[in-house]
Here is the input.
Amino acid sequence: MTTHLAHSIAVRWGTLLLSAAPLAVSADTAFLSYTLQDNTVLTGTFAGTLAGDLFTATSVLALDYNGFTYDPADFPTLVSLDSFLASSFADPILSLSGTYLDILVVGFDGFSFAVGNETATEILDDQYSGSGLFGATTETFVLANYSLEVVPASVPEPSTYAAVGMVTLALGSTWWRSRRKS
Here is the structure.
């Protein structure tokens, strides 16, 4: 076997293994904070995906209202308020800018934000609505009281994959040399 052929085989194996390496798939994390007009504070942590200004939430990781932490398992329904009212189910969306919020979090209690979505248009008002545990109020949404920060999911840097490929090539080359000597 020629050196050129062995090198070609090692490169192909390295490329194949590198392309087969699974990418780290994890969700972005969003941290929501909203201060109600009575100065109580709602915070929530959500997993999902950020695309531009819009965060699509897929699960509730943590909820806190006015210093009391709730078990996210007690709030199994996380859905778009618009879709819920239309008897369908779509993932809720929160915008970083606070100009579009379409979210309903419900269990035995819950809350919703309708800002810039179809529901807000129908009721002619952007609003926060919380049942018993979340303020027992419906009030006009105040943009200055809202914040959403998103931490992107960690994904290995391209240099990590390059290093894996180089190690694979080195191992392939070593293996070929050892077979050639025997």
Notes: Residues 158-181 form the longest helix (24 residues). The first strand starts at residue 28 and ends at 35.
